[in-house]
Specification:
Helix content: 40-55%
Radius of gyration: 12 Å
Strand content: under 5%
Number of strands: 0
Largest sheet: none
Shape: globular
Length: 88
């Protein structure tokens, strides 16, 4: 299976989850942020700062299956996303 196929499957898992961001707040792909967050948590990370540090440290690995068209997201990006997601 190609990397693109596996990221499509990951996106399908979150099909009902709407991206709460608008305007230029959506500079980074919603599903790529979720993938980085998941990878971070699986490696023991706990918050937005850990997610940004993980993304920066593992950028070459992440680019193997993510586009990261606008570079590595900052901790502010992760923080804004998770603050606006509806927990239900």
């Amino acid at each position: 299976m190609s990397c693109e196929g596996s990221t499509d499957q990951f996106s399908a898992c979150w099909e009902g989850l709407e991206d709460p961001r608008s305007g230029n707040a959506s500079l980074h792909d919603f599903y790529e942020l979720l993938m980085i967050a998941l990878c971070t948590v699986l490696c023991g990370g706990q918050g937005a700062v850990d997610m940004a540090l993980f993304a920066k440290a593992k950028e070459p690995f992440l680019r193997g299956f993510l586009k990261l068209e606008n570079g590595v997201p900052s901790h502010d990006t992760f923080s804004r996303l998770f603050r606006t997601l509806d927990p239900d």
